Amino acid sequence: MSETSADSTHNACGKMNELEDVSQHIHDKISSLQCMLDLSVIELPQNKIKKLGQELFALERLLEEFEKCVGQQKVQLKHLKELEKLSQKDLEDVQHMKDNIPPHLPRKMDTVRNEPGMNHNLAADIQPAQAENVKTTKKSFVREMEFITMSEFEGIPQYMKGRVSYDQLNAAVHSINAAVTAKYKILHQSVKTLNNHARKLHQRFKDQETKDTKGQHFIVEDDIREFTQTKVDKRFQGILNMLRHCQRLRELRGGGLTRYMLV
What we know:
This protein is mainly alpha-helical and about 260 residues long. It has eleven helices and three strands. The longest helix has about 55 residues, at about 45-100.
C-alpha cells in the first residue's frame, strides 16, 4: 500500500497535470481499500484499523480535488467553445468578404499598359519619355471619376437604370477612367517621344479643346472606342445618363462633338 498523508493529498491536483493520472491514482486507492476490505474478515489489530481510516479520509480528500479539477476543466471547455464560435463567425465573415470583393475598388493606376479593358495595341504605341526630360508638375495630374456608391445607385430612377446592374455601372466608370488616363498620358508627353499614331491622337485631342474645357478633363466617344473594349451603343448612352444623374460628368456640346466632362 502506498504511503499517504493529509499534506500530500491536499496538493494532489497540483502535482498531476493530467486528469487521467488523477483518475488512475484514485483507482489505485480504491483497489487498495478493496484489498483491505477483503482482509477485514480477519480480525485486524487496532493500528491497522486506524490505517484503514486514514486511507479512507485521504481518498475522500482526493475525490474532492478531482471534482474541483473537473469543474475547472468544464469552465475552460465552455470558454473554448465560445471562442470557437466567435472564431468561426469571423472566418465566415472574412470568407464572405473575400468572395464578394467588388471589381471596382479604387486603386492606383500605375501605367496605361496595365489597365484592364485597355486597348493594349495602342498602349504599346505610347512611348515613355526620357528620364532626363520628365518634369513632375501639376499639369501631369489626371483626374479620375469616383465609383458609384450603392446608395447612389439605389437613388437612380428605375426607368433610367433599366437592366444595368451596380457592377456593370461601375465597370463603365472603370473604362471611362482608363480612357481618360490613356488620353492625358499622351497629352502630357512630349510630341517628340510619340510615334506617328500617338502624334495624330495628340493633335486630335488638342483640336477638340475649347476655352470652356481649359483646365478640365474630358473625353469623347471616339476616346472610349480607341482606348477600351467597351461598346459605345444605346446601352452605354443610358449608362452615361446615369452618370450624369449621379453628377459624375456633364455634357459640353460644340463643333459637332459631345464632350463628357468629369465633374
